[in-house]
Amino acid sequence: MKLLSVSLAVALLCACSTTTRPIDARAEDAAEHGGRADDAVKSRGRVENDERHGEAAKIRVMAVGDIMMGTDYPEDWLPPGDGREQLSRVRNLLRSGDITFGNLEGAMADGVAPAKVCKDPASCYLFRTPTRFGRALEDAGFDVMSLANNHARDFSESGRDSSKRTLARLSIHESGREGDVARWEVRGRKVALIAFAPNPGSNSLLDIEAAAAKVRRLAAESDLVFVSFHGGGEGADRTHVVRGVEELPPQENLWAYSGSGSFPSA
């Protein structure tokens, strides 16, 4: 795998957050003149960055945690604006990345039947977000999503099928189901992302040797490989809170980040 410089700008922002880190001045400029960091502004900044850094030009990566914008099952808990309002405060920040990643919890589906029946609707944690909410992810600038988690199959594989179709229509890449890998190009570089989870039907996190072999194969054919996994417990002493970033030996060109938390959740 070719070595390259990667700028990891992890957006650990809750939906209720009132502050964000400063973003590129061009994006702020654009926000003041129409409320969006448009592609022309982003492209100009990247061209200037290329001119300064040449072959070592940085790729800016935005990564957030679990995304569940609302559910209509077993009752209607959908927010106004089809998810756009939840992401509005961080929209420009997310769109400032060359690659923006999130973990999609639940199924993005319309009317698909659940995989199990809830005995108590008050404590029913099955998430079904209407497909129209996908536009909010597109508008926020997401490029790639993980569909490997404990809620991806809340509505069986039919629900995950619907999620895959919805993202594909929006040109958002995804990985999660066993054997699925996201592959695309970013500014002339081959990028791959593989998402793991310990849940049935997903790229398995339980067989570490097999998982490592998959990553090695991707590394042999890609310039940049991202590995996502969804696992562990929840709570203040668990992995759904902000952790640190570990930079491994420079010659390996690897970064490890643990615990990107819950992002927008209804």
Helix content estimate = 25-40%
Shape: globular
Distance between the termini: 40 Å
Low-confidence stretches: 1-50
| Overall pLDDT | 78
- Return the string of H and E elements: EHHEHHEEEHEHEEEHEEEE
* Total separate domains: 1
**% residues in beta strands:** 15-25%
Number of helices: 7
Structure classification: alpha/beta
Task: Characterise the protein shown here.
The model is unreliable at 1-50 (pLDDT under 50). The chain has one domain (6-265). It is globular, with a radius of gyration of 18 Å. The N and C termini lie far apart (40 Å). It is 25% helix and 22% strand. The longest helix is centred in the N-terminal third of the chain and has 15 residues, at 39-53. The strands form four sheets. Strands 1, 2, 3, 6, 7 and 13 form a six-stranded parallel beta sheet that branches. The protein has a three-stranded mixed beta sheet with strand order 8-9-10, covered by helices on one side. The protein has a two-stranded parallel sheet with strand order 4-5. The protein has helices spanning 25-32, 39-53, 84-87, 91-95, 134-140, 156-169, 208-221, and strands at residues 6-8, 59-68, 99-104, 107-108, 128-129, 144-146, 173-175, 182-186, 189-196, 224-229, 245-247, 255-257, 262-265. By secondary structure, the chain is of the alpha/beta class.
